[in-house]
Design goal:
With 309 residues, the protein is α/β, with parallel strands linked by helices. It is built from six helices and 17 strands. The chain is globular. The structure holds flavin-adenine dinucleotide and FE2/S2 (inorganic) cluster (FES). Flavin-adenine dinucleotide binds next to strand 5, strand 7 and helix 1.
């Protein structure tokens, strides 16, 4: 039996700021299954007790391994799928075992337990008007698979642009293709070396394809920061709204440790100045937004892309 969630978040109405310090809980989750997802990645299904909030696409959770664990801090992970039921909530992840924490996570098997804190952060504003264009770089496809499912449930079709350095980094490509076909969306592939799809970056492919898509467009994206910066500049140059899921090394995931700063744009600094004195303290400060509470999904115009690392 999984224990009931302990409600630690600051429940209640969503704050009137572009951020989330809202309702989250910490639960003991159980591994339902863990399987290879291609190109060295894994797909993990966890079961949380009913009452754990069903995340939105783009939100993340903090996974904390049970002792004895080789790592002290939890690891942030985007939600790749979520299903709420009467008795439990199933939450899925697509991840790469890159270091000590994720390698230990990869050794968990059915029935093992892990502590989970969430749902955290601000997700993609999928209700935004326009043709949704999802742009994924490598394993950044994880939250966008979830976004495609959510759009489909809302009766909306999307375009998915999926790029990587080479075909070997297009993790879960066949699954993405199956989902898109089922969902009535279209998949556009790009690889830097031309080993699959268009030869070049996914932003170059978008640039070529955009005139053929039904406008207005609205972009939702996740991938390496270099790719997101290029996409943000492309979108800003054309007045296309873009929402970009960022990553940062994180400790708390809730705005307390101040360890995940993202440089604000001038417009975002101005908004902070105007709200002065009335800015929730778990969001960022005058110069930096916190990735965990004001993000991880940021509007392109809210960050200073020259200073994003
Ligand atoms: C909001 C958010 C969502 C994320 N979603 C996913 C996801 O869906 N799938 C997935 O595979 N990973 C995701 N990550 C990254 C994941 O959290 C890191 O890969 C993980 O923390 C590494 O932990 P580790 O103990 O295995 O590696 P460590 O031993 O801590 O580090 C190993 C290597 O990974 C690098 N690394 C550590 N943290 C990150 C990071 N946040 N981003 C990029 N590189 C990092 C380190 O610099 C080092 O090179 C996400 C991160 C954030 C902040
Ligand atoms: S991770 Fe602690 S403030 Fe963001």
């Amino acid at each position: 039996m999984t224990p009931a969630p302990s409600r630690n978040g600051r429940g209640g109405a969503a704050p009137a700021f572009a951020g989330s310090t809202g309702s989250w809980s910490q639960v003991r989750a159980r591994v339902l299954s863990q399987r290879p997802y291609g190109e060295g990645h894994l797909w993990l299904d966890l079961e949380a007790p009913a009452g754990f909030g069903v995340p939105r696409a783009g939100q993340f959770v903090q996974l904390l391994l049970r002792p004895p664990s080789p790592v002290l801090l939890p690891r942030p992970m985007s939600v790749a799928a979520a299903k709420g039921g009467a008795a439990a909530v199933t939450i899925s992840f697509l991840y790469g075992p890159v270091g000590t924490g994720t390698q230990a996570l990869s050794r968990l098997t059915r029935g093992d337990e892990v502590d989970m804190l969430g749902p955290l952060g601000r997700g993609f504003p999928l209700e935004a008007p326009g043709t949704p264009v999802l742009v994924a770089g490598g394993r950044g496809v994880a939250p966008l698979l979830f976004a495609a499912d959510a759009l489909r449930s809302a009766g909306r079709r999307c375009e998915l642009f999926f790029g990587a350095r080479s075909s070997a980094q297009l993790c879960g490509l066949e699954d993405a293709r199956r989902r898109l076909t089922r969902l009535g969306g279209r998949l556009h592939l790009a690889t830097d070396d031309g080993s699959r799809g268009f030869r070049g970056t996914v932003v170059e492919l978008l640039d070529r394809t955009a005139p053929k898509l039904e406008g207005p467009l609205v972009l939702h994206s996740c991938g390496p920061h270099g790719m997101l910066g290029a996409l943000a500049r492309w979108a800003q140059g054309r007045g296309v709204p873009a929402h970009l899921a960022m990553e940062s090394v994180m400790a708390c995931g809730t705005g307390v440790c101040r360890g995940c700063p993202m440089p604000r744009s001038a417009a975002s600094m101005e908004r902070y100045r105007r709200a002065r004195g009335d800015w929730p303290s778990l969001l960022g400060n005058a110069e930096y937004a916190m990735c965990c509470t004001e993000g991880p999904v940021f509007a392109a115009e809210d960050l200073d892309w020259d200073r994003v690392e």
